Amino acid sequence: MGQEAGSTRMSIAPASGKLAVLLPGLGAVATTLIGGVEAVKRGLAKPIGSLTQMGTIRLGKRTEHRSPLIRELVPLASLEDLCFGGWDVFPDSAFDSAAHAKVIEPALLEQVRAPLEAIRPMAAVFSPEYVKRLHGTHVKQAPTKRALGEALREDIRRFLKENGCSRAVMVWCASTEIYIERSAVHASLAAFEKGLDENDPAIAPSMIYAWAALKEGVPFANGAPNLTVDVPAIVELARKQRLPIAGKDFKTGQTLMKTVIAPMLKARMLGLVGWFSTNILGNRDGEVLDDPGSFKTKEVSKLSVLEHILQPHLYPDLYGHFDHKVSIHYYRPRGDNKEGWDNIDIAGWLGYPMQIKVNFLCRDSILAAPVALDLALFMDLAARAGLSGIQEWLSFYFKSPMVAEGLYPEHDLFIQLQKLKNTLRHLAGEELITHLGLDYYEH
Ligand SMILES: NC(=O)c1ccc[n+]([C@@H]2O[C@H](COP(=O)([O-])OP(=O)(O)OC[C@H]3O[C@@H](n4cnc5c(N)ncnc54)[C@H](O)[C@@H]3O)[C@@H](O)[C@H]2O)c1
């Protein structure tokens, strides 16, 4: 970055003109985001859960009493300037899809009917090989994966033109794809583009969207646990295009809790014997995750968190042998209102056992929508500030944060928040906050 932290304001292009928020997957999360933004714009509801809309940031010393809203410190796109679009394998409008998802209550949904009805998904790049439980028909046909990517690029250009947008961001809100491991085709951009020509099976639809977005100068954030942009080939493309990327998997319910409770256990040197997590949910995401291939992708994402936070190699006596189980059960009657249970077996002084039980009755998409909104706005900010490649400061929003090769991810929610806020202070030329505070006591 070539400047001292907190010395001068970085040059950030203004947020002028309309910002296209392009969403592959117009399902429960995407329509709760769009319907929510429309409701907030009309003063019908508050943007609760969104740091960009409600969060403040302390600047300088505690004695200075400076705590502006984050959106007053850095130039973010305003909700009025957002223009939503997307793709789906079903042709339903955002209104019909929201009605099907049953997250936003009918009375509120009715009040935002017009803007949601106007959003019709573009035909998806999709193959049931990658999401076994879905059989949509609103799908693009082309002989190669490169041709499908080119069709998406055309969609992006057309959307920007037709809607008079000055720039765009893409946030993946589509279904979780089957588990794919990194392979040779992901190792470099050249190998990846050859794979697009040769229809390599290790290139999933989500990767084609990411490739198309970056080729069109559009930042990409990944809300699902798919590999997608977490491969060297796409990181290389992002660096080449000087664009930000981020992922993966929105951190919303059970993992949000885990990344608060586990750091507490470690902070107090309490041992962990076992952590049993289970969920029931009945939305389409739950149905997709009922397939072992898609569940494996989610499971890997959910399981990695504890190892990284607890660092068993540093604390073998406390965390050397804990059991960690995660399961998700599709249970239709529950709809989007997921219920998560955690049973945590811990050990205290002299090894005495204790238990913590957490029963989180949450609403999946109500938790995810503000995360998707913040990511769209912060990714746009990052692009205008010239930040490119992996945006680790947005780890706060992800279950499996992407990090540079050789780094372990930081999962502790409050370290992530501090990193996010310090990045904003840095962008704004404000002093970073270390919480040392000795100077308050020097007389
Ligand atoms: N709290 C949360 O809700 C939460 C948290 C973390 C991650 N996620 C992830 O976010 C994603 C969206 O969740 P949701 O509840 O909205 O699911 P959903 O099933 O309601 O919506 C996903 C939509 O994506 C569409 N789709 C699938 N493949 C597509 C493709 N290749 N191109 C375009 N559209 C495609 C489906 O038809 C569906 O309408 C899922 O991957 C989910 O795992 C959600």
UniProtKB/TrEMBL annotation:
<dbReference type="Pfam" id="PF01658">
    <property type="entry name" value="Inos-1-P_synth"/>
</dbReference>
<dbReference type="InterPro" id="IPR036291">
    <property type="entry name" value="NAD(P)-bd_dom_sf"/>
</dbReference>
<dbReference type="InterPro" id="IPR002587">
    <property type="entry name" value="Myo-inos-1-P_Synthase"/>
</dbReference>
<protein>
    <submittedName>
        <fullName>Myo-inositol-1-phosphate synthase</fullName>
    </submittedName>
</protein>
<feature type="domain" description="Myo-inositol-1-phosphate synthase GAPDH-like">
    <location>
        <begin position="253"/>
        <end position="365"/>
    </location>
</feature>
<dbReference type="Pfam" id="PF07994">
    <property type="entry name" value="NAD_binding_5"/>
</dbReference>
<dbReference type="InterPro" id="IPR013021">
    <property type="entry name" value="Myo-inos-1-P_Synthase_GAPDH"/>
</dbReference>
<comment type="similarity">
    <text>Belongs to the myo-inositol 1-phosphate synthase family.</text>
</comment>
